[in-house]
Amino acid sequence: MINALNRSLATKRADLTKDDKGFTLVELLVVILIIGILTAIAVPVFLTQQASARDAAAKSDLGNAKVAYISYVTANGSAPADATALATQGYQQSAGVGAVAVVSGTTSTFCMSALSETGTTWYITQATSASTTACS
After folding, report:
1. Which 3 state secondary structure label does DSSP give 3?
2. Who's near 52: CB < 8 A, 6+ residues apart?
3. Which of 34, 102, 107, 130 is deepest in the core (most CB within 10 A)?
4. Taking CA 81 as the corner, what is the angle to CA 107 and CA 63, rounded to the nearest 5 degrees?
5. CB 125 within 8 A of CB 135
């Protein structure tokens, strides 16, 4: 019986000296902490990029509406009553952009606006590119 206990203890001691494979709790916690820090950095950057993309879509729509407006005036000899008339010149509004509106317009001058999903109102005139400065 004593021999059996001695063999059992010897087996246990041999098992303790073997290199254990795996990660300790501290190592796992450090990895989780690093992932948390990287997430805290990446999420705000991602959200900023989304806002920039929404503003870019609104500015792009205004640029396309500007070309359609000039085409409409050239084809019809008069200013369109509103932005929906620009569809006859191939203008299609992007999804997610507030309606492009002709604030004022004649055959030689115009001002159009668009509201992006970020809440920014963009303006464009015959002489300027898209900006947040309201038309005068």
Report:
1. helix
2. none
3. 130
4. 65
5. yes
Contact 122, 113 (CB under 8 A): yes
Q: What is the DSSP secondary-structure string of 77-120?
A: SS--SSGGGGGGGT--PPTTSPPPEEEEE-SS-EEEEEE-TTS-
Q: Which pLDDT tens digit goes with each residue over 6-38? A: 787 777 777 666 666 778 899 999 999 999 999
CA distance 108 to 69: 11
Using alpha carbons, select from 115, 107, 111 the residue that is nearest to residue 136: 111
| Chain centroid to CA 60 | 15
The arithmetic mean of pLDDT across residues 113-134, rounded, is 88
Report if pTM > 0.85.
no
| CA–CA distance, 86 with 106 (Å, rounded to integer) | 14
Residue in the block written with tokens 């870019």? 56
Residue with token string 């932005």 = 83
CA distance 21 to 41: 32
